Amino acid sequence: LNPLLNAFVSVAAGPALAQAAESEARLGRGEGRPLEGVPLAIKDNTAAAGFPTTRGSRASSPQVETADAVVVSRLRRAGAVIIGKTNLPEFGAIPVTESDRLGPCRNPWDRRLTPGGSSGGSAVAVAAGMVPGAHGNDGGGSLRIPASCCGVFGLKPSRGRISLSPGPGDAMAGLVSPGFLTITVAD
């Protein structure tokens, strides 16, 4: 699906499979954590160790991250398996997911349409069944717009509820909040 939709811009299949095997062993021992073995995606403007961060811009010099952002670290500690980074417009600045660096992301329901933005890659990955949930962030609709365009649930938590560190801790005067996209509210 990804060649048609361009939801993921980087995937680490080997490490994800190794983490999934570890999760399976933990579950077998009865040591499962809240998100044990759940595959999740991270928007490509947030640090995730082992993945490059491009922010959708040719101006960025992507280097493979050596540390996780706080939100990613918390997901991993809860047992989530981070499988890849998702597409976004340049610097997450517009409500359509198209960038010169990463190419356009396509709506899974009609590839002629936008999935919205700026967390469009995350919404597409969830709507297309690539992952059950995905991280995004929202300062002016960047979770809510793609959720609406792709028919998934998007949650923008209250400002400060989830840390943005390291990075733009006060991005857009504190308006940006990390959040999540899932198929349903219950997810």
Automatic annotation (TrEMBL):
A Pfam match: Amidase
SUPFAM superfamilies, per database record: Amidase signature (AS) enzymes
Record-linked Gene3D superfamilies: Amidase signature (AS) domain (3.90.1300.10)
Domain Amidase: from-to ranges: 2-187
A molecular function (GO) term: catalytic activity
PANTHER family associated with the record: GLUTAMYL-TRNA(GLN) AMIDOTRANSFERASE SUBUNIT A, MITOCHONDRIAL, TRANSAMIDASE
Name this polypeptide is given: Amidase family protein
Species annotation: mine drainage metagenome
